[in-house]
Amino acid sequence: MNPEQTFTIKQTAAQTGISEDTIRYYEKIALLPRAERKDNGHRVYRLEDINTIRLLSCLKKTGLPLEDMRPFLAVSADADPGDYPELVEQIRSQRANIVSQIASLQQIVDFIDMKLEEGKYRRDCSDESSGNAPANSVEEPSSKQVSPSEMSYFPNR
């Protein structure tokens, strides 16, 4: 083994935020090369391995299936993306999916905010029933744009 810095699986997991079990699994399915072993059988990782695990983690966060990550591992970090148009297109597609998911989640957040505001007004209405305020003094909450598909997540009660 070279005198370069090496890391245990525990240290590698801590540096990458990926569990030891997941690292072992990535080795098992050959997303990662088999780790070298010390004389005692413990795995040894290098900085290059840690960088590969970080790349896998980023690709996983995009929603890319594990099998689709393999071509990205074959490309060096300093390669020209123009030399790999199919990979660039795949990442652009993943980005578009993520942007769409963000927009959908924002609609859900807006819907929840709207429902929380309605709940506030309902409390005010219950105060009115006790005679504390005239019925016409409560303003309607401003409605936010919520898609019909998002409305279906929250049935009317």
From TrEMBL:
<feature type="region of interest" description="Disordered">
    <location>
        <begin position="122"/>
        <end position="157"/>
    </location>
</feature>
<feature type="compositionally biased region" description="Polar residues">
    <location>
        <begin position="128"/>
        <end position="150"/>
    </location>
</feature>
<dbReference type="Pfam" id="PF13411">
    <property type="entry name" value="MerR_1"/>
</dbReference>
<protein>
    <submittedName>
        <fullName>DNA-binding transcriptional MerR regulator</fullName>
    </submittedName>
</protein>
<keyword id="KW-0238">DNA-binding</keyword>
<keyword id="KW-0804">Transcription</keyword>
<dbReference type="InterPro" id="IPR009061">
    <property type="entry name" value="DNA-bd_dom_put_sf"/>
</dbReference>
<keyword id="KW-0678">Repressor</keyword>
<keyword id="KW-0805">Transcription regulation</keyword>
<dbReference type="GO" id="GO:0003700">
    <property type="term" value="F:DNA-binding transcription factor activity"/>
</dbReference>
<dbReference type="InterPro" id="IPR047057">
    <property type="entry name" value="MerR_fam"/>
</dbReference>
<dbReference type="InterPro" id="IPR000551">
    <property type="entry name" value="MerR-type_HTH_dom"/>
</dbReference>
<dbReference type="GO" id="GO:0003677">
    <property type="term" value="F:DNA binding"/>
</dbReference>
<feature type="domain" description="HTH merR-type">
    <location>
        <begin position="6"/>
        <end position="75"/>
    </location>
</feature>
